[in-house]
Amino acid sequence: MGERLLAIDTATIACSVALFEDGALIGSHYAEIGRGHAEKLIPAIAQLPGRGKADKILVNCGPGSFTGVRIGISAAKALGLAWGADVQGYGCLALVAAQALDQMATPRPVCVAMLAGHGEYFLQNFSETGDPLGPFATLAPEPAAGQVKADIIAGSAAEELANAIGAKMHISILPNAAHISLVATEMKKMPAKPIYGRKPDAQPAKIA
Q1: What is the pTM of this model?
Q2: pLDDT at residue 121 greater than cutoff 90
């Protein structure tokens, strides 16, 4: 058996896992479940060849859902400890950009816009090679519209943002772990730490 890599993605309403051996995809699962990642993730991994056991684990660190990001990272770290596997992370928006570029006949710059809750977007621009053109931002629709630097918008908020600014093309898409190989190697070496993108809805109570 060659070197195996397990990819875990629970940062959005989608829950996906994928197992690779020597770079080749040998098993995957993808479902848009909304909620319930904690209940669905481990059974999905267990259905992969060899119950998903791998030498290396990659996990989506966000930005995305608070709960989803925490579940994915916690599972990756727990499995990494149990298997003695190396655990690293990747960015949600980078994977969405890579998937969008893969769908284009001729790659072009793309702006990724993901729903962030409370009417806001996670937004980041990428070049035609998938390189980020700056850091991501969490923005309301009006300022987000002014930050779009491409004719193509991709992501879960792509359609509504494209309609708002009259973009020529949009690609409605969610991250899928089965496509992690599309992301450049240097962008898959992040520490496995959460990138939430905004403050939590619930704040600790202040003690007088």
Answers
A1: 0.93
A2: yes
Give Cα separations from 167 to 9, 141, 155, 204 (angstroms). 28, 14, 14, 41
Whole-angstrom distance, CA of residue 71 vs CA of residue 39: 10
CATH number at residue 129: 3.30.420.40
Taking the C-alpha atoms of residue 171 and residue 49, their distance in angstroms, rounded to an integer, is 31
- Tell me the C-alpha to C-alpha distance, in Å, between residue 123 and each of 150, 176, 177: 12, 18, 20
Does residue 53 share a domain with residue 37? yes
Q: Are 76 and 128 members of one domain?
A: no
Q: Tokens in use for 14?
A: 């989608």
- Residue range of the domain that includes 107: 92-171
* CB count in 10 Å sphere of residue 59: 30
The Cα diameter of the chain in Å comes to 60
Residues 40-59: tens digit of each pLDDT: 999 999 999 999 999 999 99
Rounded alpha-carbon distances, angstroms, from residue 139 to 136, 161, 194: 10, 12, 19
- Surface-to-core class of residue 27, CB atoms within 10 Å of its CB (0-12 exposed, 13-18 middle, 19+ buried): middle
In a domain, 206, yes or no: no
Are 50 and 99 in the same domain?
Answer: no
Per DSSP, 75 falls in state: H
